[in-house]
Write a structure and sequence with these properties.
Blueprint lengths: L12 H14 L3 E5 L5 E4 L1 H7 L3 H4 L3 H4 L6 H10 L9 E6 L5 E11 L8 E8 L1 H30 L3 E6 L4 E4 L1 H7 L3 H4 L4 H4 L2 E3 L9 H8 L3 E2 L4 E4 L5 E12 L5 E10 H16 L9 H18 L2 E9 L2 H8 L1 H16 L7 E6 L2 E9 L3 H13 L4 E3 L2 E3 L3 E8 L6 H18 L4 E3 L1 H24 L23
Parallel strand pairs: 18-19
Antiparallel strand pairs: 1-2, 1-5, 3-4, 4-5, 6-7, 6-12, 8-10, 9-11, 10-11, 11-12, 13-15, 13-18, 14-15, 16-17
Helix pairs in contact: 13-14
Length: 489
């Protein structure tokens, strides 16, 4: 029995206490009663379930230990303030369970006086709001994510180069991005809710008759459709634009058509974009030089022309020496600027008919087309090396750059683009092994010419062996291997 209610006229104490105990134990709210010494004298089953404490564990001052350390001061303040006349507020605090889990609760503490301050009891009412709080936080997070997604979609639609316009199922305008506003001449607010045929007013460029609207066709036919050829977009000020477009139906979650989206652009701008994309596909984004794809295309063409006209083709494969040190010490941004400076220096070192390409990283390739003689590659290599004797100036800082060069020639070193590049690449690594700033030519041409000379040498030896006046023991001198195009070995 918790409260002694034996005053005259009261109900039967036995019945009263039994009813009170039943109410307390059956309450879905956690209830803890503390005395004036802040010691727990009672806790119901609901509180024990919420806190994870048994009756013994929650007795005495241990109830305070069940409160999260960061919230204990708030709970003690609520306990001290509860005897005041003002209505005690609810406080949201956290309980730290023995297993380490945390429950979020609403705490209400009310003081009950029974015969003076010495007999004050404090009733702690605890409501478990963990599930509700987590649901609210999840809902808030979902709302924030949806808002962020919508904002991201809005930014994306406004940043793309194409115009985007959407309608509802009845064909009324629901959205225009910035490009669509510019091309149609309608602002988003003024176009909202208007019929698509009014905002996206298209006519036949020759007959001047109203053309079928692609959005209405997409909705009616439930498929992606395109604008008829020769149509133009007529704007409110009377000006007209040649456009290209496509429209597709929008479906709801049940798969039903709920509207349409139109993506359109100026026809002339479309050609510009196509040309720009083709350029980017064949050129290095950093230096603007032709990339490896365009190099192989031009090299194959140069070999075909040289084969028909009896000319030579040369490849210079270049690698910057110790470039990694620049990236490691000064950063990739400075390294990129140095690569651009190298590219510009290479362009000034070759003929207008030659092609300077960036193979990747710090490797460059120079295609020497229609050489009159193989020795011309030697001249270009000398010029390239001489060009780097003058330091490069990048952001006011001087860089002394050396390059390792390997070469290959058509037809001596290979009769295909892949073979020539492979031989030049191998020669470049041989040059790099000799030290910075070195040059090597392909060994393939040397080996082929040695094979061609072998029958001649054998014939000479046979003649000398049959000549009585000759010294049969004397061997003819072998031709020395061909020296590199640059003598740095």
């Amino acid at each position: 029995m918790i409260f002694d209610r034996t005053a005259a006229g009261s109900v039967n104490p036995r019945v009263s206490d039994a009813c009170l105990d039943a109410v307390l134990e059956g309450s879905p709210l956690g209830i803890l009663i503390s005395d004036s010494d802040c010691s727990c004298v009672y806790s119901n089953i609901a509180y024990q379930n919420i806190s994870g404490l048994t009756t013994e564990e929650s007795s005495g001052e241990h109830w305070i230990a069940a409160i999260h350390p960061s919230d204990r001061q708030l709970a003690l303040s609520a306990w001290r303030d509860s005897p005041s006349d003002r209505a005690p507020p609810w406080h949201e605090i956290r309980l730290l369970r023995p297993d380490g889990s945390v429950r979020r609760v609403r705490l209400h503490i009310a003081a009950l006086r029974e015969g003076g301050l010495a007999n004050v009891r404090y009733v702690h009412t605890v409501e478990d709001i963990t599930a509700r709080t987590e649901s609210e936080e999840a809902l808030h997070a979902a709302e924030e994510a949806l808002l962020e997604q919508n904002e991201r979609a809005q930014v994306t639609l406004d940043s793309i180069g194409d115009a985007v316009l959407t309608t509802d199922r009845l064909g009324n305008v629901m959205y225009l991005n910035h490009v669509a506003e510019t091309l149609t001449g309608w602002s988003h607010d003024s176009a909202l809710g208007r019929p698509i045929a009014e905002v996206f007013n298209i006519v036949d460029g020759e007959t001047r008759r109203q053309a079928a609207n692609p959005a209405q066709r997409a909705i009616a036919e439930d498929k992606t459709v395109g604008l008829a050829i020769g149509c133009v977009l007529r704007r409110p000020d009377g000006t007209e634009l040649k456009i290209e477009d496509s429209a597709a139906p929008i479906h709801d979650r049940q798969g039903r058509v709920s509207g349409a989206v139109i993506v359109f652009r100026e026809a002339s701008r479309s050609r510009t974009i196509t040309e720009r994309m083709a350029y980017l596909a064949q050129h290095d984004f950093l230096t603007g030089l032709p990339n490896r794809m365009l190099l192989r295309e031009r090299l194959a063409q140069a070999i075909g022309l040289a084969r028909r006209h009896g000319k030579a083709v040369g490849i210079l494969y270049l690698d910057l020496d110790n470039f990694k040190q620049v990236n490691d010490s000064l950063g990739h941004e400075k390294g990129d600027r140095l690569l651009r400076a190298v590219a510009n220096r290479l362009l000034t070192s070759v003929r207008a008919t030659d092609t300077v390409c960036r193979e990747g990283g710090d490797e460059f390739v120079i295609l020497l087309s229609e050489l009159k003689r193989p020795g011309d590659a030697n001249d270009v290599a000398k010029k390239v090396r001489a060009a780097f004797e003058t330091p490069l100036l990048v952001d006011g800082r001087e860089f002394r750059v050396t390059v390792s060069i390997g070469t290959s020639l058509f037809p001596q070193d290979g009769d295909s683009a892949d073979a020539m590049l492979r031989e030049a690449d191998t020669a470049m690594y041989r040059a790099k092994a000799d030290g910075p700033g070195r040059y090597r030519d392909s060994s393939a041409g040397v080996n082929i010419r040695a094979l061609h000379r072998r029958p001649v040498g054998e014939a000479i030896r046979k003649v000398l062996s049959r000549d009585p006046a000759g010294d049969a023991s004397r061997k003819p001198e072998r031709d020395s291997p061909r020296a590199g195009l640059l003598s740095n070995q």
